[in-house]
Design brief:
243 residues, mainly alpha, Helix Hairpins, 2 domains, 0% strand
Length: 243
């Protein structure tokens, strides 16, 4: 807006200086006319002096007046000449000023165009900055989501580690049970079938009864083949109630 106002002021100044230059040219014409009048007056005064000289003593007074008129005409011509020179110098300076003002006007026009371009660039930068701000906000939201997911994964990892440790403890406990069972019943024996009374005696021994050696099959090496635990000793669900 300021550049536009300055541009308008320069345009008005250019118009004013052109008006002054035109008025100066008109004044020069008037001065030229005055110079011509002074020249003609000088000629008339010269002719009057000649005629007064011819008249002799009767024209002596008229000769003095003619001489004064001639002097005034010469002074008017000199003043008109000086004024004309001043006006010509002024017109030349005004013409130079008009050219400078025109160049200034062109420069202001260029500044105005550059200012408009700068305004457009600033608007584009503002739009880009707003878009980048939205992108940064989305990135921040994504980072926050990733942080929440990371925290959740860490919590799940801790829980899984705890469960894994617990399972490892249970596996170790089961291994201990299996090792103990293998230690107690780990020989290769010939398979035999126990009767119900014998199984009952094994399950619920009578501590008040006399201790007798149970009837056990003779230990003889068996063929090397895979023997399942249920083939070594038959157990049912009641045998694991203590575990």
């Amino acid at each position: 807006q300021i550049v536009g106002t300055a541009n308008e002021s320069v345009v008005k100044l250019t118009v004013s200086m052109e008006d002054i230059s035109r008025a100066s040219r008109e004044t020069s014409k008037i001065i030229k006319t005055i110079d011509e009048i002074a020249f003609q007056t000088n000629l008339l005064a010269l002719n009057a002096a000649v005629e007064a000289a011819r008249a002799g003593e009767a024209g002596a007074g008229f000769a003095v007046v003619a001489d004064e008129v001639r002097n005034l005409a010469m002074r008017s011509a000199e003043a008109a000449k000086n004024t004309s020179e001043l006006i010509e110098g002024t017109v030349k300076k005004i013409r130079d000023g008009v050219e400078l003002v025109a160049k200034t006007n062109e420069n202001f026009a260029g500044v105005s165009a550059s200012t408009a371009k700068v305004g457009d660039l600033v608007a584009e930068i503002a739009a880009t900055s707003n878009e980048q701000a939205r992108d940064i906000e989305q990135v921040n939201n994504s980072v926050a989501d990733m942080d929440n997911i990371t925290r959740q994964n860490a919590s799940n990892a801790e829980r899984y580690a705890s469960v894994s440790n617990e399972m490892n403890d249970r596996v170790e406990l089961m291994k201990g049970f299996v090792d103990e069972l293998l230690r107690l019943f780990g020989g290769h024996y010939r398979k035999r079938t126990m009767t119900e009374p014998e199984l009952s005696d094994l399950k619920r021994p009578d501590i008040h009864a006399s201790v007798e050696k149970p009837h056990v099959a003779e230990m003889v090496p068996a063929e090397k083949k895979e023997i399942r635990p249920e083939q070594i000793i038959p157990l049912d669900d009641e045998d694991f109630e203590d575990f």
